[in-house]
Amino acid sequence: MHPVILPATDPADTTFGTPPPALPVLHFPGLVWYNPEVRLQAVRQLREEHPSPVTLIGFSKSGIGAWNLTREYPGLVEATVIFDAPMTMEALPPWGTAPFYANDEQWQKDLPLRNLDAFQEAVPAAHPLILISGETFHDQMCRMSEALHKKGREHVFLPRPQMAHHWESGWLEEGLSPLLPPAGDSD
Question: How many domains does one find in the chain?
Fold first, then answer.
């Protein structure tokens, strides 16, 4: 497993804590929403810095980025972990999206709920997909998991409505654990 974190906030913003220093993080100069242009920047970084497929880790808005990068570049991603993201929010979020999405229509083109069929077609069925809800987007993560079930898409869903929307709330360890070999397995 080669985990890589997609940042969810401006590099100087510690409102939601900071990603663990032991894991590689993609770098952007400021706040990003993972629109097509930002995803191209992310793909360039992934190809330059991580030659083998990676486990993409997305938190909040970067969870949408992880979903879309997996859908568009499945050969670059060996597994996807998404925590507490606005996966089904039909209206353009108000949290700094203006420079990245001009309107609801552009936003909805990237909305994971509206890209289920494209994800199914592009991403192999055996691809590990782990969704974890938290206190902020629990209902949306539940709705996304239900939609995946209706499409017959295998995934792990960990409903955690009381889990803080924070890097240090324990979700990362829990989300990565299904990807680790069983205890005692030497592979």
Answer: 1
